[in-house]
Structure formats: C-alpha cells, structure tokens
Specification:
Blueprint lengths: L28 H27 L7
C-alpha cells in the first residue's frame, strides 16, 4: 500500500437555524445538507476500508 496522504473525510457542517427561510425553497439548505451527509457517509465508508487495509499486517507470500 502507498503512504500517500489520505485524511479521514470530515462531516459537513449543519446549517444554522437561521439558514432556512421556511418558504419551501427547492432545494432547501437542509436538502443540500442531507445530500452532503449522504456523500460524506459514502466517502467515510470508503476511507474506513482503505484505512483497515493499511492497518492490516502484511502477510508474507508462501
């Protein structure tokens, strides 16, 4: 495995209570936030798999 820089993804910041105007905008800031959270979860799962592979002990070839 490579030792390339691969930081853990960071969760998106939730919008403040004053960010939503409550008028039913499409998309609402909460819609955008929820989409960002879904993308973050996918990125985090992929990162966790890469991290587990990096942490796994190397096995010698038989």
């Amino acid at each position: 495995m490579s030792d390339d820089f691969d930081p853990q993804p960071q969760a998106p910041d939730a919008p403040g209570d004053d960010m939503c105007c409550g008028s039913g905008c499409e998309p609402c800031v909460w819609d955008l936030y929820n989409a960002a959270v879904q993308e973050y979860r996918l990125q985090l799962a992929a990162w966790q798999l890469r991290e587990a592979a990096r942490q796994a002990p190397a096995t010698p070839d038989n």
